[in-house]
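Recap for those who missed Tuesday's class. We walked through two folding examples back to back. For each one, the amino acid string is listed first and its predicted structure tokens come directly after. Nothing is annotated here on purpose, so try labeling regions yourself before you check the end of the notes.
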Amino acid sequence: MKFFEFAAMVAALLFLSACENMDEPFALSEERQLAERINQLGGRQSFLLPDESDLATIPQDPRNPLTPEKVELGRLLFHETGIATEAITAGGLKTYSCASCHFAGAGFQAGTFQGIGDGGEGFGFNGERRMVATLSNPDSLDVQPIRTPTAMNGAYQEVMLWNGQFGATGVNEGTEASWRAGTPIANNFLGFQGLETQAIAGLGVHRLNMTSELAAELGYETLFDLTFPDIPREVRYNKVHAGLAIAAFERTLLSNRAPFQLWLRGNSNALTMEEIRGALLFFGKADCVSCHSGPALNSMTFHAQGMSDLVDCPEPTFGTSVDNGENKGRGGFTGNAEDDYKFKVPQLYSLRRSPFYGHGASFRNLRAVVAYKNNAEVENPRVTARAMPASFVPLALTEAEIDDLTTFLSSGLDDSSLRRYEPGALLSGQCFPNNDASARRDIGCD
């Protein structure tokens, strides 16, 4: 073979090789852009969630320090249907739990647009068939007039619920006039942060119980003794300490195995190209990070987004009304008109696990939420123009960019192994998250 023929062949092979790998430099470039942008925003550590077993690094209420015993007690009580001894509906006794509306399969949200505790029955495959029990009086249902928020990454929320009403610290300092006596909000006077306050109040609101007799009956007495050895026995087995244990467990509900979290830890293959492009939009052009920041991609700020209320759902809802104070968000709690229609910025992990979005469940897929934000056209006619923030403007995203951003939110932020947070079994031996006959058949634990 002549020299010029050999040289031509080598050149052709190099050209073909370059064509076959032409996407690689582009891919590396986009990943570098994402890494540089994250560094500009404080570095990977600013967005990194700790391991759930590393209790010392998890944000916690200094008045409720985390211990392995407390977390384990809370894990069991969170799922325990046996503590539903204050049910007021026919057949509701010992059939529901905290996990009825916050279970792992749905990303610790409800599996329906409106969660049902006491008065509900069934489960389906992933909570989608939880419905009003046949013999229940709708007026006595344990439901909330607003979409059930997720319990994921609650350690990064100093106050809880869409309106932030639970918690005595942080942004709730100075709101004492709204801690009305005789209401669940009065639990703020106990002085705890939001997770602890919500867990304590929630036991009462959702008709769950804890007494020394119940702890002994269900087999939890020893765990209470190990968890709260310094608390006098006469007050050890009550709703306050049960709530503190549940809150401790909730602080460990961290979506630290999502692809974006793995990428932050150095796994360059954890994100797909679509997810990387979506992340670049999230932290760049779409500027989602201006509100959704930190390890949980949330914040303790409140903003009006003009989304519809739960009463506007096409499906029948219970306990809802256009006049419900919950529809006014923060303003419904503080009584300050400047806070009307403002809702707390939610965390963004594992949202794909339950297809209902917004405080009123008015969106049924994540792409619809992104498109709504992109168009910036108010959905709820009851929300005044004065309430809308200056930042509520069109994002000028293309359809392809909407797809990429949706992919990042849907799969890039999804921790697919949340079942690790469920107990293997309850000490009572009952089924969870629900224990009515229909749910037991659905779950397959009869």
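Example two. Treat it independently of the first, because the proteins are unrelated.
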Amino acid sequence: MADKRLQLFNISRMQKLLLHWYHANKRDLPWRENQDPYRIWISEIMLQQTKVDTVIPYFHRFLTAFPTVFDLAAADEQEVLKAWEGLGYYSRARNLQNAAQEVVEKYNGVIPDEPDKLGKLKGIGPYTRGAILSIAFNQPEPAVDGNVMRVVSRLLLIEDDIAQARVKKDFEKHVRTLISKEDPASFNQAVMELGALICTPKSPACLLCPVNEVCRAFAEGVQAELPVKSKAKKQRVVPLMALLIQNDQNEFLIEKRSEKGLLANLWQFPMVPLDEMDKKHAATWLQSEYGVNVQIGEELGELRHVFTHLIWELDIYAAKTEAKELADERIRFVSLDELDDYPFPVSHQKMIPYLSQCSRS
């Protein structure tokens, strides 16, 4: 078992090697400029499911727009979503603002440094809590995500399935034992950095690894087989017809998504579910759903957008309407210039170039 291996594992040697490597090789990242809890919190939320290089410009823009927790708490949600536009997983942004409002209301704008209080804020799970507590407050708390589990599974030669919740809890215990009590902030970041630069998912650079002398997977030549992870369920494919509906004033119809669920409160072009009907009935469905009569024109293109659990297969069509007023509060007409004021998911941002093909004769 991994616990027995921990008893024999040279923890102090690993810590010394890893921290020395980190201080000599760490990347110059904007959230590492200081230990401001707000900046670290923002960065950790953005870095979930997103690569570092993608996050950097968003981080700068977000901090410019909302430099303090008070600014974020007081902002209009649409402004927050617009600042997040393109990063995906938009529930992160909504949860972030909700948590900021709670920090302002309950803690006078001071981000709590107590695990229980911090962990109760919306959107802060065990990993993010551990990252903030260790990096911002220098507390020896584990921050375990996929990268960390990969590194630790190789160091300790753990062959348990990391897709299981029980196993992740075990990894938290292992990291709590391995973490440097003198410099937990650097330790957790060092493990993350090692996973990003050296101990990568495929073809890890073991010969360059600063801790290869204590790595059990490397010693046995099985590093490429770890971590063990069972396959996720197959993604559900959802066929959709996206309509770029134009009126006589060269405006386009957009729709606000529901307050709950996937892409909540973002804006999009109307979509017709093709798993429920044939395309020839799309105009009838739209009239029934929104009270708008349309004439569907030519197909402009196709898009495929992949989410964690489903895939949208989008057929994009031009459409026209003679409607002057809209009774449904979910929809509105906007000009091309006004589109920039609305937060759109990436899939619908990719449709905007097609609008030039919809010009009315």
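Answers for example two:
Residues 272 and 285 are 7 Å apart (CA to CA).
Residues 91-107 form the longest helix (17 residues).
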